[in-house]
Amino acid sequence: MHDHHPAHTGATIRPVSRRTHELPAAVRGHPRLAAYVRESYSVHRRTDLGDDLAASLRAWQLLMPDDGCFTALTSAALRGWWLPPIPAGAPVFMAMGLDDPRPIRAGVRTSRHTRPIAFECIGGVRAASVPETLLSCARWLSLVDMVVLMDCVLQRGECTGREIEAVVRPRRPGAAPLRRALALADRRSESAYETLLRLLHVLCGIEVEPQYVVVDEDGVVVARADLRIAGTQALHEYDGDEHEEAPRRVRDRRRDRDIERAAHVRRGYTAGDVLHRSGSVLRDAERSLGLAHDPGRIRPWLAELRKSLFTPSGQAEFVRRANPRLPVRERGATA
Question: Which of 16, 173, 257, 332 has the fewest CB atoms found within 10 Å of its own CB?
Fold first, then answer.
């Protein structure tokens, strides 16, 4: 028997009869409750939990079996790592078993594994372990992007190089690029753009010393610089937006004078210098080393940078590769 309401069409949103906090954080199906908002087809999250990543992933998690977990950039973002710019259209990355049913829908990229991937729960969300997250990221990200992630993990002490090497087995997807990124990683980096500035020099064949301690003639510590050009008194540093704020600017100028009195030369570079004017950074390093300018020296850096998510071309290629082509869904099919 069916109830008929000729004066009303469409789904009815029922008011919440229970206290919102007593409801499940996320549900499958099509709940007609004002307390839920749609995250994807047939998965909803509670509205009061907000729209941050963890709240969103609680809904997506319903599409996985109990031993499935989020991985790659999804896990990295949940963990709060330094990240390259994530483009619109980036999928949610999931790791599942070979025989687990795969969610066929837009916005999901699943990897299949012969045995369960190690994971830990972060705010009720299952995230692949740190080494497994890095290995999965290496399947999709460029060398530049991977070194940024790797530096963050090592700097925070979330993982060791030995633990990363333990997941690098022959034939595992991402193993080769992960090894290459690990060889270039340095735990002394303190930000994503410090990493980029260091990589710019290293890929151009310029040896640098990170976190160099400057002392005056009496041996008193004057400053700790992001990078020193090896064999010189030249210091190259990344200057973020916070350096433009008045109180910080005053301290920076005082520090600059102290560095100069200690017979060193400091050069500060912005994100724009690193990403768009890297040739000028290289020329400064060449001048400090007494080298003639070689236009070919910058090419390895530019080639790697173009593949990264720090550039429009790298973002477009990532979105193209990371989003699977979906089969045409037949009318009435479910997922």
Answer: 332
Give the whole-angstrom CA distance, residue 14 versus residue 5.
15
Identify which of 273, 302, 297, 304 has the alpha carbon closest to the alpha carbon of residue 205: 297
Interhelix angle 130-140/312-322, rounded to 10 degrees, is 100
Separation CA 152–CA 297 (nearest Å): 27
- Residue 111 is inside which H or E element, if any? strand 108-113
Q: At what angle do helices 278-289 and 299-306 cross, to 10 degrees?
A: 150
Contacts of 16 (CB under 8 A, 6+ apart): 23, 33, 34, 35
8-state DSSP, 128: E
Provide the H-helix boundaries in 204-327.
246-261, 271-276, 278-289, 299-306, 312-322
pTM: 0.84
Positive or negative: CA dihedral 198, 169, 319, 57: negative
The C-alpha atoms of residue 173 and residue 10 are separated, in whole angstroms, by 47
Q: How far apart are CA 82 and CA 193, in angstroms?
A: 10
Domain ranges (residues) in the chain: 64-187, 192-292
DSSP codes joined into one string, 135-187: HHHHHHS-HHHHHHHHHHHHHHTS--HHHHHHT--TT-TTHHHHHHHHHH--T
Longest Cα separation, the chain = 94
Q: At what angle do helices 175-184 and 143-156 cross, to 10 degrees?
A: 60
Q: Which residues pair with 147 in a beta bridge?
A: none
pLDDT tens digits, 142-194:
999 999 999 999 999 999 999 999 998 878 899 999 999 999 999 999 999 99
Query: What are 266's strand-pairing partners?
Result: 235
pLDDT tens string 37-86: 666 656 666 665 666 788 888 888 888 888 999 999 999 999 999 999 99
Q: What is the CATH number of domain 192-292?
A: 3.40.960
Q: How far apart are CA 276 and CA 273, in angstroms?
A: 6
